[in-house]
Amino acid sequence: xxxxxxxxxxxxxxxxxxxxxxxxxxxxxxxxxxxxxxxxxxxxxxxxxxxxxxxxxxxxxxxxxxxxxxxxxxxxxxxxxxxxxxxxxxxxxxxxxxxxxxxxxxxxxxxxxxxxxxxxxxxxxxxxxxxxxxxxxxxxxxxxxxxxxxxxxxxxxxxxxxxxxxxxxxxxxxxxxxxxxxxxxxxxxxxxxxxxxxxxxxxxxxxxxxxxxxxxxxxxxxxxxxxxxxxxxxxxxxxxxxxxxxxxxxxxxxxxxxxxxxxxxxxxxxxxxxxxxxxxxxxxxxxxxxxxxxxxxxxxxxxxxxxxxxxxxxxxxxxxxxxxxxxxxxxxxxxx
Amino acid sequence: xxxxxxxxxxxxxxxxxxxxxxxxxxxxxxxxxxxxxxxxxxxxxxxxxxxxxxxxxxxxxxxxxxxxxxxxxxxxxxxxxxxxxxxxxxxxxxxxxxxxxxxxxxxxxxxxxxxxxxxxxxxxxxxxxxxxxxxxxxxxxxxxxxxxxxxxxxxxxxxxxxxxxxxxxxxxxxxxxxxxxxxxxxxxxxxxxxxxxxxxxxxxxxxxxxxxxxxxxxxxxxxxxxxxxxxxxxxxxxxxxxxxxxxxxxxxxxxxxxxxxxxxxxxxxxxxxxxxxxxxxxxxxxxxxxxxxxxxxxxxxxxxxxxxxxxxxxxxxxxxxxxxxxxxxxxxxxxxxxxxxxxxxxxxxxxxxxxxxxxxxxxxxxxxxxxxx
Lengths: 336, 373
Fold this sequence. Notes:
The complex is a heterodimer of chains A (336) and B (373).
Chain A: H1 2-23, H2 33-44, H3 54-88, H4 101-114, H5 119-142, H6 149-173, H7 179-188, H8 196-215, H9 217-223, H10 227-232, H11 237-259, H12 265-277, H13 281-305, H14 313-330
Chain B: H1 2-24, H2 41-45, E1 52-56, E2 62-66, E3 74-76, H3 79-87, E4 94-98, H4 99-102, H5 105-110, E5 119-123, E6 126-127, H6 129-135, E7 139-142, H7 144-153, E8 158-160, H8 169-184, H9 187-207, E9 218-222, E10 229-231, H10 236-243, E11 247-248, E12 263-265, H11 268-274, E13 278-281, H12 287-290, H13 299-302, E14 306-308, H14 321-335, H15 345-356, H16 363-370
Parallel strand pairs in B: 3-4, 3-7, 4-5, 7-8, 9-11, 9-13, 13-14
Antiparallel strand pairs in B: 1-2, 5-6, 10-12
């Protein structure tokens, strides 16, 4: 049993690093692995002799590297927030988008696209409206006397539906030839626009949220026992709820704003992780980080290398993930 | 037992409700048998009772429509075809157009009457039938999907403008013009437009005749805020770029059943490996690209060959008659200015509007068209 645990842990730590390294070697820009290694090494030892073409350097350092890192980060963020929400709401069918952050961010992005805003404004708008949507959900749910987690879920569904309708309205009024495809492509999720700037922008909220969630992960164990039990054990459930929701919203909003809407990861990866390490959140959350990051990284590699044009990520995560997970389900599971 | 019967009742009522909703809209047409035997459908719809002509529309359907002089009101339900109505001069007969057309500010400037024409089509196959009937058209023209919606609900004569083959969009444009000329008795103006198009193409071809394939400029069309959306190799834009004597950098990409006419996303790595000679964007300023660490490495950006896509009545990257004529010319003049020493794009735009749309543009208008925003 212990050996199994050690093996799993080693895999969970080493796989992301290996995956990142290997992913840097693949891409549409024709380059041998040796060339890529030269570029990377030249960053560490500036006195390298080998001539490196500036195009290759840009392709590796400014296109592939930020994209690989961003894919890892987004995968990590979505899966850890999905796992936290599943613990908080004691519901295995909850994903990171439950409180309307994806709909809010979609609305923000669609609004910015309609007004022909530059890329940075589209992302900022998505981020802000993601936060606003959840803020509205929190505000409305606090108006109720019995402000329980169920109320929060219901109000989250309401804001999600509201912002989804607004997004539909914007797609309806958008110029069919220019703005509509831009909005639709954005909604399908893609990391094609990944850059160092995006990375710098997104890493701060994501890292902050992930670190806090990891710090309080054992409390989520207690919360998942039930509201009354948690209160009896001394946890301030209201404060915990707000902290978890805030962190998850920040990381999900940051993810959606740089990558568009990528569903599925927040919902399924936590289950997959539970199969490997069990339902204890102390082990579950870090496992989610690892598995979610690697999964999205691999899918994104496929999205950018498989066909001549980019396939939106949101499409691939579902198409690949569904059969894989269905197969895993048949192999037996350890739920909770 | 009770519970089961109740559940069955609920299911049955839901099922009936769904059926009702599905078939509500189908009961629109008046069956021909209910009319007095001496009147036919067409005569009921067109009380002017003028002579009818029989023709085959572009989808191969045999239709009977009023003769050209007796068509007083026409509903055109696809946006590029509305523009073709202007090209053959029958814009005063427009009685119903599309939502998108009403948003074209330049067109409303060319024809102030357009502001009062109702927009009955809001999207693909989304037509407000009651508003269309209110507009009382003599005939309706549009794409297959839109016309099928009208045929299912009314008895208005419809003419289908079918999609041409990809890669033959300019031929398709000329066919549509000739068809419009036939329908409205304006063959002279239709022929004028087709000749204009041929003449432009001929000018470009002769000026770029000497260009070896290696010397042809590679153009990358990069749309939307991240400049990554483009037209692949099996699209009309590919054809137009080649008609301008250039090469489409995104030719290796093909779009899977391009819903919006073949748009697809390129990746920055692909663009780096193509290293196009010229880039055309539709959002932001060309200088935005020189500030970006990835785009600034491209030779097109280094040589300041980044241009903003012009927007005339309609943006020039959609298959309209204006774009089909003007985009290849604009592209050729911008790519090879020294081969077109006696042609200036501003005066070419003015000439097109004057001779085809019969409208005089001011210099300010031309400036706004060529450098939007």
